[in-house]
Amino acid sequence: MRLYSHQQRLSKHFCVWLNTRCNIHTSHLSALSSRIIPRMSIQDRARQSLDIAKTALKVKAHTPGQPNYVVSVEGNIGSGKTVMLNYFSNTNNCEIHTEPVHKWRDIQGHNALDLMYQNPERWGITLQTYIQLTMLQIHKQPQEKPVRLMERSIFSAKYCFVENLFKSGKMPEIEYIILTEWFDWIIKTQNLQIDLIVYLRTDPEVLYSRIMKRCRHEEKGIPLDYLKALHHLHEDWLVHKKFPCPAEVLIIDANSALDKMPEFYEQHRSRIVQTAFC
């Protein structure tokens, strides 16, 4: 009972956090704050989470005349997501939302991203909890232009990065269960519109070469095996559909040099930014 009491306290603190930071009404949070994580095997819990997601996420084609269109640009570390967003940043009636990495690097002076890379067993849950919050904030932010392009989503955070931490043994089962509980509640109760996923599919060896060249501080110790593991999870989610997809998937081969990629983006412009809006 001590464990479940602690989990309830964590859930209540998280509800206050969601209410103050994401402006989610307290009436929607009451169910979460009072829940006790059920006793079930991790395999059953994973199946339950997938069932919840499949029910909550129904792939629907964009309806002509719908006021907003949302595109999530997905891909492994170094796949060229920022390059693609920069390419479309000057498109009329199109707004760009990059990953809030600046927030993850500076939580009142603490660099959670760097801490996670240094010691994922200790800091994985901390970073992923904050990522789940900050990505939710982007999803819920009012859309000012007809087309929104966002770098990654709350879904890739869960189905790729959280899953990798757990499957690699770097996230304890209880932390994985708690994060999954919060994720399931979010997708059941919140409208997280995505109309298209663009998957920048890139070989891990190409990613590793790019990462070594760009020399970001937090990424300097990333091994090739880590990129391979994330690649397999992206494939499981976006190609093999082992996890639910909130939208149709457009796959772009992103193995070419980054300065050559705009010609591939241009080939799919009408689908990516819905030319009728722009």
UniProtKB/TrEMBL annotation:
Residues 71-272 form the Deoxynucleoside kinase domain. It comes from the Eukaryota. Pfam families: dNK. One of its GO terms (molecular function) is deoxynucleoside kinase activity. Gene3D superfamilies: P-loop containing nucleotide triphosphate hydrolases (3.40.50.300). GO terms for cellular component: mitochondrion. This is Deoxynucleoside kinase domain-containing protein. The lineage of its organism: Eukaryota, Metazoa, Spiralia, Lophotrochozoa, Mollusca.
